[in-house]
Amino acid sequence: MSHPTVVSAPGKVLIAGGYLVLDPAYSGVVVSTSSRFYTAISASTRGSNTIQVRSPQFNDSTWTYSVSSASVKPTDDAAGTNKFVQLALQHTVSFAFKTRGIEATDQILANGLDIVIVGDNDFYSQRAQLSALNLPRTMSSLSSIQPFCPQGVSLSKVHKTGLGSSAALITSLVSALLVHLEVIPSSALSDDEGNGRQLAHNLAQFIHCLAQGKVGSGFDVSAAVFGSHLYTRFDPSVIAPLMNDPSPDSISSTISPDNKAWNHRIQPFHLPPLTRMMLADIDHGSDTPSLVGKVLQWRKNNPEQAHTLWSRVDQLNQSLASALSHLSTLHFKNPKKYASIVKFISSLQPIQWVADPSLNEFEDDVASGFFKVHETSENIRKSMRQMGELADVPIEPPEQTNLLDMCCSQAGVIGGGVPGAGGYDAIWLLVCEPLECKPDQWPRERVEYVWSTYDQLDVSPLSAEENMGKGARPESIDEINGLRNATQQT
Ligand SMILES: Nc1ncnc2c1ncn2[C@@H]1O[C@H](COP(=O)(O)OP(=O)(O)O)[C@@H](O)[C@H]1O
Ligand SMILES: C[C@@](O)(CCOP(=O)(O)OP(=O)(O)O)CC(=O)O
């Protein structure tokens, strides 16, 4: 059986730092998801210098390219329509020609390549699949849908859920190509040997900007490459010149890990133990670029007011990050006592967590730590609503406010909010996930009940949790449930 080169990359949820993270003065808390994109590359027998890319989850999603003298050209009009894929192939192959040499690269491309790209079901709305199977919208129903389920539509028609499909796709495709073309060893992604991960980041970041036609904050590509972290963006001027002149020479000097102009910061971060992130997709959607345009315009027109509000939001975002990290420290100090407090607060509403005189000092620290996260996330929501009102943008519209208020008042729910730019897109929650909950209900079950009965918005759960491992990583095709099967679908 063949063993293709497979590299996966996770999706993202910006739980704090929306808008602010566009400015290098502020940081964002980005959580990477267990849901991933996978790119599998095999040598083909299709003929020399032909690269065929397939996305079997979609109709009409086979694109064929031909490579000559380091240039990758679509062989027909259809192949030119996936700009993201085409640019990733063009710039990664050309970088391989430049760094590995013509002969070595030609040898790998000699019989052509077959590339298959798939994304976990969470990246796309599974409402249609659930209703076709007559299943309620719950996380357990999601687990009974076939992995990498065909969506029955073309890519342009699919309903995305906001986990950052294009960033995860570009990162897995670019990284898999770098490994397959022997520009970086796979140990660069498994063991962080050398600076291959940094190179993959810089190249994926540049290609994603080029495909999107703008230099965004880059937190989504960063999460796909590095996993969860506190993200501070790079100066956009690192990439800006390449947007008009993407020549191989300027690309290779710009993306070099030795290029000191890359000044993004990746600080370690994870959600605390015995908690679970929950995500729901809202079938309404919002257009992030237009929300961003309006907020930035308001900031420009009202510099003082915006500065005051952004400083406050930033303080709250930093407090949230440190309160979450403090909980991880408390767990490390005494995992058993920490676990008993998580169980204890799982059946209480946040307001009751800090009013118990029977807790000893350590236990009270843990309970107060969780309360601090609750309080801070509520204050972030309040400030983001204020930003929305001032900029006249529905960052947390009333229907989302009602939904989040109902969820956040459930026993065992720590906090939540609207991820990223907000709008009618999605919500995130952090709930207690004790080792066992008996005789009580799990906090996540309470939340699922609220979601399934909420009638102001069409809420559908995602199955993603936090990805606790690295970002981009090599995979073995047979260890990922359904991956070999998906790559064999036509
Ligand atoms: N499974 C896939 N296979 C190939 N290309 C994909 C796939 N999923 C997403 N893409 C590419 O990413 C683009 C979506 O980018 P964008 O609208 O920025 O999405 P997002 O907001 O999820 O990042 C698609 O038009 C397509 O070019
Ligand atoms: C506003 C932002 O800071 C965050 C947007 O985050 P989302 O998660 O909402 O992004 P999309 O997946 O593109 O919709 C813009 C940015 O940082 O680029």
From TrEMBL:
Alphabetized UniProt keyword annotations: ATP-binding, Kinase, Lipid biosynthesis, Lipid metabolism, Nucleotide-binding, Steroid biosynthesis, Steroid metabolism, Transferase
Gene Ontology BP, a term: farnesyl diphosphate biosynthetic process, mevalonate pathway
Highest rank taxon of the organism: Eukaryota
Pfam families linked: GHMP_kinases_C, GHMP_kinases_N
Database matches in InterPro entries: Erg8 (IPR016005), GHMP_kinase_C_dom (IPR013750), GHMP_kinase_C_sf (IPR036554), GHMP_kinase_N_dom (IPR006204), Phosphomevalonate_kinase (IPR035102), Ribosomal_Su5_D2-typ_SF (IPR020568), Ribsml_uS5_D2-typ_fold_subgr (IPR014721)
EC number(s) given by UniProt: 2.7.4.2
Gene Ontology molecular function terms on file: ATP binding; phosphomevalonate kinase activity
UniProt catalytic activity: (R)-5-phosphomevalonate + ATP = (R)-5-diphosphomevalonate + ADP
Protein family per UniProt: Belongs to the GHMP kinase family. Mevalonate kinase subfamily.
Protein name, UniProt field: Phosphomevalonate kinase
Organism (species): Collybiopsis confluens
